[in-house]
Amino acid sequence: DAKTTQPDSMESTEGETVHLPCSHATISGNEYIYWYRQVPLQGPEYVTHGLQQNTTNSMAFLAIASDRKSSTLILTHVSLRDAAVYHCILRTNNNNAPRFGAGTKLTVKP
Amino acid sequence: EAGVTQSPRYAVLQEGQAVSFWCDPISGHDTLYWYQQPRDQGPQLLVYFRDEAVIDNSQLPSDRFSAVRPKGTNSTLKIQSAKQGDTATYLCASSFPFSNERLFFGHGTKLSVL
Q: Rounded CA gap, B21 and B104, in Å?
């Protein structure tokens, strides 16, 4: 699977909108973009995923660039509970196992 | 719906001791994964199964680590002779039997090797 690049850390304040970037310049046509988040003492939790079109759910909005070489996870009105490490990973549709990087540590200030 | 269950939650060992981790996946999930997560790093895949078959164990240190899933349900990960470098959280995850299904993770077992 192709590799992703994310900033090590980002900071926000409660109530703000946060844009978490992910670069995947060598993404293949059959690779999906997945986002998971992880808080201390727990395993990663699925947030969202997409292939080409932007997607939205109760947790976040995923914006995918038209060339698919980057994506942005958008969290609106963040709260302290959104503080976590956010992992952006790529996965093909052959049911292989996801490979995680270090992710982006999001800190939310009161 | 019950989530992925792991036990124990914590383990503390001296070097050279053995330890086993146990995982009960979500009912109906045919694929089960074991990850190792050192402090301040992302989860690293060790091995994963589809039913009872090992699909990929290329990252499992075979001289000291072993993993089984004999009936395609619960799984056990064992470290025969632990080293300080094995200190990490061991995460189990499972997913439904379709490609690209999301993974559901357990809370993990935090291992400290002294």
A: 17
Model confidence band, residue B47 (pLDDT cutoffs 50, 70, 90): very high
A49-96 confidence digits (pLDDT tens): 999 999 999 999 999 999 999 999 999 999 999 999 999 999 876 667
A41: left (phi over 0), alpha (psi -120 to 50) or beta: left
pLDDT of residue A97: 85
| Mutation target among A48, A95, A96 for the B interface, most CBs of B within 10 A | A95
Round to whole Å and give the CA distance between A72 and A34: 11
Residue positions counted in chain A: 110
Question: Which of B25, B1, B6 shows the shortest CA–CA distance to B74?
Answer: B25
pLDDT at A2 over 80: no
Cβ A91 vs Cβ A32: under 8 Å: yes
Q: Which of B103, B104, B109, B110 to mutate to test the interface with A (most CBs of A within 10 A)?
A: B103
B56 shares contact with chain A (CB less than 8 Å): yes
Phi, psi for B78 (deg, rounded to 5): -125, 140
